[in-house]
């Protein structure tokens, strides 16, 4: 695979991860607001976790590193 294709594939994976992360955050917000969570939310969370772990392994990122990144993004209101 060419370098350009590799980069596109990585971007696609990150977009998918971003979408899954947004879904997980919305589900958490729904739970905080008193709205009951729908039972089918467990599958997207598992899918999100699987993709996150795969990306962490691919880029050799520790849990602490990812936690710092997400905390920073939330702090600067880049994600809800």
Oligomer: single chain
- Biggest β-sheet description: none
Determine the fraction of residues in helical runs and give it as a percent range. over 70%
* Residue fraction in strands: under 5%
Q: Count every beta strand, where a strand is a DSSP E run of 2 or more residues.
A: 0
Q: What radius of gyration results from the CA coordinates?
A: 14 Å
Q: Give the terminus-to-terminus CA distance.
A: 36 Å
Helical region count?
3
Average pLDDT rating: 75
Uncertain segments of ≥5 residues (pLDDT<50)? none
Class by alpha and beta content: mainly alpha
Question: Any idea what the shape is?
Answer: globular
The helix/strand order is HHH
Structural description of this entry:
With 80 residues, the chain is mainly α. It starts with a helix and ends in a 5-residue tail after the last helix. The protein is built from three helices and no strands. It is 75% helix and 0% strand. The protein has helices spanning 3-32, 42-58, 63-75. Helix 1 (3-32) packs antiparallel against helix 2 (42-58). The mean pLDDT is 75.
């Amino acid at each position: 695979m060419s370098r350009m294709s590799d980069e596109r594939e990585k971007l696609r994976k990150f977009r998918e991860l971003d979408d899954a992360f947004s879904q997980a955050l919305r589900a958490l917000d729904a739970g905080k607001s008193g709205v009951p969570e729908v039972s089918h939310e467990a599958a997207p969370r598992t899918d999100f976790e699987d993709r996150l772990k795969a990306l962490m392994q691919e880029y050799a990122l520790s849990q602490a590193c990812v936690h710092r990144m997400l905390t920073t993004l939330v702090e600067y209101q880049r994600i809800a």
